[in-house]
Amino acid sequence: MIVPLNSLRPGEAGIVVNLQGGPNFRSRLYAMGLAPGAAVRVVSVYSSGPVVVEVGGTRLALGRGMASKVLVRKL
């Protein structure tokens, strides 16, 4: 099942399938380790704040808009 990253709950994981954005958006996420094929786990989701994820042992805070453009295959 392919869903936006911001729809996962804390503790859930997925594999990045696609990044829906322009070249600057994609290059920024690639630099953070969020590229197609990367395993990602949601650490916490704040009601009106960022989505905190773990990728390759590193924690990242993504804004909701940015997280909605990251499509993952839910594990």
Folded structure, characterized:
The protein is an alpha+beta fold and 75 residues long. Helices cover 20% and strands 43% of the residues. The protein is built from 2 helices and 6 strands, in the order E-E-H-E-E-E-H-E. A hairpin with a 5-residue loop joins strand 3 and strand 4. The longest helix is centred in the middle third of the chain and has 10 residues, at 23-32. It is globular. It starts with a strand and ends with a strand. The model has no long low-confidence stretch (mean pLDDT 92).
Q: Helix proportion of residues, in percent?
A: 10-25%
How many β-strand runs?
6
Mean pLDDT: 92
Shape: globular
Tally of individual helices: 2
How are helices and strands ordered from N to C?
Answer: EEHEEEHE
Radius of gyration: 11 Å
Strand order of the largest sheet: 1-6-2-3-4-5
Q: Span between N and C termini?
A: 8 Å
| Content-based structural category | alpha+beta
Largest sheet: 6 strands, antiparallel
Low confidence ranges: none
How much beta, percentage-wise? 35-45%
Concise description?
The chain has 75 residues and is an alpha+beta fold.
Q: Which terms summarize this structure?
A:
75 residues, six-stranded antiparallel sheet, alpha+beta, 20% helix, 2 helices, 43% strand
Write the layout of secondary structure elements.
Layout: E1 2-4, E2 13-19, H1 23-32, E3 39-45, E4 51-55, E5 58-62, H2 64-68, E6 70-74
